[in-house]
Amino acid sequence: MMPHGCTQSSLDFVIGTQMHLHAERQGWVVIYPEQASGHNTSRCENWFRP
Fold first, then answer.
1. How many CB atoms lie within 10 A of CB 50?
2. Residue 5: what are its φ and ψ, rounded to 5°?
């Protein structure tokens, strides 16, 4: 799982890291979750909330 940073979208992170290409060579699957701006205006993951 590849959580993106604040102000990034998951697509920005996919393009920037290309981690799915590395994973595919190893037979792995990568997921890129995205925090909606309605839940956090900066799109930061709300890991600190219960």
1. 3
2. -85, 175
Sort 2 into a burial class: Cβ within 10 Å, 0-12 / 13-18 / 19+. Answer: middle
pTM of the predicted protein model: 0.66
Could you identify the residue written with the tokens 């998951």?
10
Q: Where are the domains of the chain?
A: 1-50
**Cα–Cα dist 12/48, whole Å:** 23
How large is the greatest C-alpha to C-alpha distance in the chain, in angstroms?
Answer: 36
Buried b (16+ CB within 10 A) or exposed e, 10-25: beebbeeeeeeeeeee
User: Confidence class of residue 28 from pLDDT cuts 50, 70 and 90?
Assistant: very high
pLDDT of 6 reads 84
